[in-house]
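Design request, tokens follow.
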């Protein structure tokens, strides 16, 4: 992912609202002053034990999130469960596209 698309967690506002709550993850959003969306994924080690599995899940979420329309948003994905994969991610983000 390019540096412009990365969201530094230190710059994400603490008061951001949860826009979407799916069975597996939540998404918080905040407006940014850039020309594109920025993305971040938080996957606790307590949810997904191995680093390999956390990284694979993060790559899948980021790949699916790149298809979201550009609304100049900072998007923070908070993973709550580990038992989901690519089809579930795509289905939930397709629902999110209709909301954004």
């Amino acid at each position: 992912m390019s540096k412009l698309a990365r969201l530094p967690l230190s710059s994400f506002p603490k008061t951001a609202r949860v826009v979407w709550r799916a069975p597996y993850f939540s998404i918080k959003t905040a407006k940014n002053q850039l020309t594109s969306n920025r993305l971040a994924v938080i996957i606790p080690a307590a949810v997904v034990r191995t680093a390999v599995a956390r990284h694979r899940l993060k790559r899948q979420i980021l790949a699916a999130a790149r298809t979201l329309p550009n609304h100049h948003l900072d998007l923070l994905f908070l993973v709550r469960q580990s038992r989901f994969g690519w089809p579930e991610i795509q289905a939930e983000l397709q629902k999110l596209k209709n909301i954004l």
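Comment from the thread starter after seeing the answer: thanks! Helices lie at 51-65, 86-99.
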